[in-house]
Amino acid sequence: MANPSKELKVRYQQDLMIWRTPLLRAGLLTLLFLYILSPVIWESFVVTKFLDDIGLTMTTLNYAGVFAVGAIGLNLLTGYTGQVSLGHSVFVGAGAYFAAYAGSTWDLPFIVWLPGSLLVGFLIGFIVGPLALRLRGNYLVVVTLGLVFLGDHIFRNWKSVTGGSTGVSVTGASLKIGPIDFRNFEVFGHEFEKSQSFFWLIWGFVALVALLVKNIVRTRPGRALQAVRDRDIAAEIIGVDLLHYKTMAFAISSSIAALAGALFGVLQSFISPIDFGLLVAIQYIAIIILGGMGTIHGSIIGALVLGSLPRLVENISRDYDLPGVSGDQGGIGGILSISSLNHIIYGILIAAFLLLEPRGIAGIWMRIKTYFKTWPFSY
Amino acid sequence: MDQLLQGIFDGIALGARYSLIVLGFVVIYRATGIINFAQGGFLLIGAFLTYNFSQTWGWNFYLSLLLSMIVTAMIAVLIQLLLLHRSLKEISAGVFCLIFWSIFFYNGNSHLPSLIVGIFVGVCIYFLVKKFEIRFGASQSNELPIFGSIIVTIGILFVIKQVVPSIWGFAEKNMGDPWGFKIVKVGDLVFTHAKLWTIALTAIALLGFFLVNRYTKIGIAMRAAHFDHEAAFAQGISLKVVFATAFGIAGAVAALAGTATGVGIAQLTPNMDLIVFLAFPAMILGGFDSPGGAVVGGIIVGIIQNLTKVYQPEWDLDWLGVGFDRVMVFIVMLIILMIRPYGLFGTKEVHRV
Fold first, then answer.
1. Domain extent listing, chain A
2. B97 in contact with A at a CB cutoff of 8 Å?
3. Is the Cβ–Cβ distance between A100 and A271 less than 8 Å?
4. How far is the alpha carbon of B155 from chain A, nearest alpha carbon, in Å?
């Protein structure tokens, strides 16, 4: 019998599909095109040229991509499993420092040190995870906050590996996969810039991680994780092994964070403990709140917004003389420096989104979608 | 032996500050159920207000301290009313008030007229939004989750941390305390006046709080609200007043703690609020909702931190790095939490399925 409506699902597999409708499949194709073409056309096409001018350069997009990877990982832990982690920057830092050490000092190839830093993140998450069994709610928030200080102390004092407070260079880490080298990427004799080739590398990983997490959350483990989030005792009673799932959520989330850290390291090519402080941990939380908890596309959108916001603010306040904001960092000539303005906008954004739209940008999108779907009956 | 006693005394002085900070956390947590990260911001505001009154305006130090406690309490109450109440009209009124205040200020007016314009606009917006509130209210019905409120307080902390140095500058300052380097010597032990006063002021503040909490009407209301918001509300207790009072008390003790942290030569910096994060282990140790635990936890943490600092070089533990004393308290916190997940004096939560 023919399916009378496209909305009606007759098989379970249909319900699980990620790209359900023709519109979504067209969206996938568009994204694919954008992924391949963006670095090539970014500085020559009218719209993208404008974006580039206001500060949304390739490099900014790359940083946003790194944030997206980490945020997807955090969303698996916080959005889907309900375990708040204010210590995510430690996992990120562990991955970055391992990349620096294994890539530069041991001189390992890309395909070895990258899984290596994933493994380091996994192990740290595996150790931290069981804490979440004993503690919940506010106590867990504070304990993970304590991790930030512990991590910061280790990063500053294990000088042989981390270079202490000054930091360590990651330029030695190789980025070769077979014949392709992402440091000087070549296709048919045409050599691309670093920012262009990194775009392909980083956003490729964003797609991979997004697919991985999406696959986790739409299958059995994902349903178990969401049951743990909604009510962990009830989940345990219906047969979800809390120790297993909480630990695994921490371990996978932190290994994804370590991947983000490794990418961050090679992108910034120099890392120091400041890059993995409390501010970064809060940044990650802010991204998933702004984007929408428990959604994967939300984390990517949130990372794009919050990852590029500092650059936009910097450019705009340089070009247009904002009242009370000084052009340079010192705060001379105006009452606020640009970085202070950034922090303030950050703070206001977090507060505003939580107060007015707790489900984030994804929630706004959802509302728009429902409005058109049910039009003209709004309820 | 003297070294140990000296270490313990200095630890108690440090712990007294922690106790004050934690008391602020505990009071707010008991009343509203959130951890108020903006406590660090209140601490900064309080310390810099004391500095402003006593140094810039040249008033008596104790009078400045008292005034700064009152003003910080008022600011804390305002923040609670405007930002943590989660009602659109109050938030938009507050935000527009701030925006217009700053716009008028930067167009060359002085603070007072700009503030009046800001408040006027804020009040107008309040009634405007009140009229149309139902229309905006897409997400009005569902409560802001606890975690959400916590993140909002982090946002507030960010803002305060940037605003304070923009008013008073980044340089280190002298608080202008009357104690200076005066010391009392007992045998080989050295008690500085500043530390003795810190302990004394803390004791007075804590005593005051416990008396209020035990015997006054508002104290009883706060305890009732701690047990059950809805039941307390049904008995005619105004939760609004309870929440505001909790923030007021927290602001006042934060101002005291900030002043106690900032005394001495060039101790007052905009980064001082980091001490709040070091106070977290104290809060955990005592349990989130126990004011008595705040005092005990604060003093234990202060002593542990200070003894670690004293004995680390002596026991050849220098390889653990500079500033290990600050990490040590987190390690102790972790160990204690593994044994007692609700701290030493915290109430065990009962989880129903």
1. 54-283
2. no
3. yes
4. 4
**Dist CA B204 CA B319 (whole Å):** 41
Token pair in block for residue B351: 């989880």
| Average pLDDT taken over every residue of chain A | 83
ipTM of the complex, rounded to two decimals: 0.77
Q: Do A153 and B326 touch (CB under 8 A)?
A: yes
| Cα A101–Cα A107–Cα A110 angle in degrees, nearest 5 | 90
B167: exposed, middle or buried (Cβ count in 10 Å: 0-12, 13-18, 19+) = exposed
Name the burial class of residue A1, with classes exposed (0-12), middle (13-18) and buried (19+) by CB atoms within 10 angstroms of its CB: exposed
Model confidence, pTM: 0.83
φ, ψ (nearest 5 deg) of residue A56: -90, 65
The Cα B234–Cα B239 span in angstroms is 10
Using alpha carbons, list the distances in angstroms from residue B76 to A101, A234, B296.
Answer: 46, 39, 25
Continuous H helices in chain A? 12-16, 22-41, 46-53, 58-74, 88-100, 110-128, 131-134, 138-157, 159-162, 194-217, 220-230, 232-237, 242-268, 278-291, 296-319, 338-356, 360-374
Give average pLDDT by consecutive 10-residue segment, chain B, 353 residues.
Answer: 82 88 88 85 91 86 90 90 68 72 68 76 78 51 58 78 80 76 76 84 88 89 85 86 90 90 78 84 83 87 87 75 80 84 76 70
List, as ranges, residues 209-248 from B with C-beta within 8 Å of A: none
8 A C-beta contact, residue A271 and residue A129: no
> In 3D, which of B53, B99, B95, B63 has the Cα closest to residue B78?
B95
Residues of B in contact with A336 (CB under 8 A): 162, 166
Q: How far, rounded to the nearest angstrom, does the alpha carbon of residue A278 sit from its chain's CA centroid?
A: 16
Within 10 Å of residue B318's Cβ, how many Cβ atoms?
11
Assess contact for B64 and B54: CB atoms under 8 A.
yes
Contact yes or no for A171/A269 (Cβ under 8 A): yes
> What are the tokens at A315?
């450019």
Among A163, A164, A171, smallest CA distance to A266 is for A171
| Spatial separation of the C-alpha atoms in residues B231 and B245, rounded to whole Å | 19
Contact B150 A153 (CB under 8 A): no
Q: Give how far A319 is from chain B: nearest CA, Å.
A: 19
d(CA B281, CA A164): 25
How long is chain B?
A: 353
What is the 8-class DSSP label of residue B40?
Answer: H
Put simply, the answer to whether B145 touches A358 (Cβ < 8 Å) is yes
Interface list for B 101-140 with A (CB within 8 A) = 102-103, 106-107, 138-139
Tell me if chain A has a CB within 8 Å of the CB of B86: yes
Question: How far out from the chain centre does Cα A49 lie?
Answer: 25
Which residues neighbour B48 within 8 Å (Cβ) at sequence distance 6 or greater? B164, B167, B168, B258, B268
Nearest to B83 among A137, A285, A351 (CB): A351
Instruction: Provide the shortest C-alpha distance from residue A129 to chain B (in Å).
Output: 13
Between A246 and A180, where is the model more confident? A246
